[in-house]
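Students often ask why we bother encoding 3D structure as a string. The short answer is that it lets us treat folding as translation between two languages. Here is a chain of 272 residues written in the first language.
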Amino acid sequence: MYIAIDIGGTKTLLALFSKNGRLKKRLKMKSWQEPEKWVKELGKNLSRILPLRKKSIKAITISYPGVLENNTPKKAVNLPLWDGKKIAEDVKNLFSSKKITVPIFYKNDADLGALYECRNFSGKTLYLTFGTGIGGGIVKNGKLAKESADFEPGHLKKTYRGKRLDWEKISSSKAIRAANNDLDVRKISEKSALDDVACRFSVGLVNLIKEHGPDQIVLSGPIIEVFPGFKDTLNRLLETNLKFDPPKIYPAKHPQESVIYGAYLYGKSKTS
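And here it is in the second language, the structure alphabet:
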């Protein structure tokens, strides 16, 4: 069994996978801005996903929404009050208190999503995930490329409606939700709103395609659940601005769970 924990800026996903990759249990909890509250909440929810035989757990992989160094979490961009090193110590103690002493791996959330969603593509694949911010990874022939470590697509400076902003302030699921009167982005259905999503995506994608020359692009995050509604408009905008055929764009297979599936794969690869 493998435990996967995806820490996001607003929510945390907990999951239990079988050794063959079957998602056995899954639950969602709040990502508290106060780290001590998050650890307490994790402790309360952990028992709900643990298997009856704790000895069957082989590894725990935790996606961390920020800077990592030598498997140690540091700064979390969307959780500024968190001390990554202290979080790692508290998490280790929490699992130890439940008699679970297996390897705990930390990995960037976007890297884990990219590993899962892009593992079967040949050539270069750009993986972009639109959540609280915009993260991404670069995969070459199924493996993370060296340049992926410095890939920060959400911080591209772009102009939209006369304002110069980070791309994630324009096109993240959080930004799109705010632009639609706090409507859940998975429920956006009006053509004008979907066309606006396509415009927001295109302002950053044009630059990324020119700079990285990907063979394909994979998009993930909650907004991708309505991808069929803005796909054609997005392609037209890219064709117009690029002056050449854009790479094929694919929606993620698990747009809101790519990271926990990637966490399972990573944990298994480290312990097999």
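Translate back mentally: Helices lie at 35-46, 84-97, 109-117, 167-171, 173-179, 191-212, 227-242, 258-271. Keep this in mind for the problem set.
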